[in-house]
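Hello Y.,

Per our agreement to keep a running log of every chain we model this quarter, I'm adding this entry. I've kept the format consistent with earlier entries: sequence first, then predicted structure.
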Amino acid sequence: MELTGRTMLERFEQVLVFGEKEMERRWALARQVMREAQADYLIVLEGSYEGYNHWFIGNRECEAILVPKEGAITVVLGRDVENEGVYRTERPTDFEKWIARKPVQAVHPELRFVDTFDARDILRDCEKKEPLRIAMIHPEVLRNTWYENMKAVLGNFTYFDIGLELDAVRVVKSEEETYLIRQVNKMNEKLMAAARTIVRPGRSLKEITDEFQYLAMRLGSGGHFVHVFCVNCGPQDEPSPDGMKRQPYPGFVLRQGDKIFILIETNGPGGHYSALGRYCILGEPSPEMKKYWDMAVKAQKNAAKMMKPGVSVREIADKNREYITSCGFLTNDQNYLHSLGFQYGEQPYLNAPSEHTPLRAGMHYIAHPVIQRPYPGTDAMDGIFALDTYFVTEEGGVRANDFPQELIVLPH
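Predicted structure for the entry above:
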């Protein structure tokens, strides 16, 4: 594994930390899935939503990625259909026209960038036949102008969604990806350790959140977003006023005896996302708070031990619900099992069509089953959970961080 000489285009743009061999490994993986699905071509649309753009080309700033069964991959930066009468294989790209976008570099000899979509790029890379079978990622967002252009150029063709098939294999992490994930987990552990000085009485949620996010960027987070939230705040034995809705900085100031959940969902150098979440208690934890926290940790560990190849996240969630209720607690249907990569949430997801996809060894998975805590005399409930990430192995989930699964007690 060679990780030297990698650079980011800008300080907070998480771009291209992996090398050419890693990029080629990913392309080969996608093409293997194409062959198995008997696809003549692959078009990646809405590729930023689940990290596809970054996974394929090292940068999320593009409109589509056109992948033939072999040869150069075309990256479409613009939105319009190419209307020139004369088709040119090389079409210059004007990067200056995208005011809000970062620069894009030709990082691999088999990547070509164009401003506009032209179905003749597909025809150039395919054998002439009808109907062509075109696989797509998020075909539901195919523009009508693109579709009409494809009909005019390609004649009869069929297209289908290949997302579930590709998701099942691309989320298995390589040696390089695993290394970068371990680095972001080290970063998250540093962030969480800083709670002992950042979280204190008299500080508002905005002050605390701003300091966490600033520290995250100083440590190398950036790119798409930097997610560090402070939620479920308030006296530890009373309902939280925000109810995990992530209200925009309610006018809440911490006091002695309060609880606050620090939720880190961000990336590190290399762009990979990971997550870590712990409750801080300003003072001594109450018996009730400890009871629900301990159950949240037990539920997470129970889910993790089932993270084995061949098991689906729906199976894990159903069995974990039985375990939680058998212990005398309530839970909910929140999505607490999903993969992580160049986007915070990647398939297979709980509560999504991919929830029945069997897990594979090497997947990087989040786990935070929710324990519902009722409050006598009210209809309110808080969701108490511990948040960690795991690698799927033959023996079950192996935690990807080393931060203690304990309440953070702040005796200010």
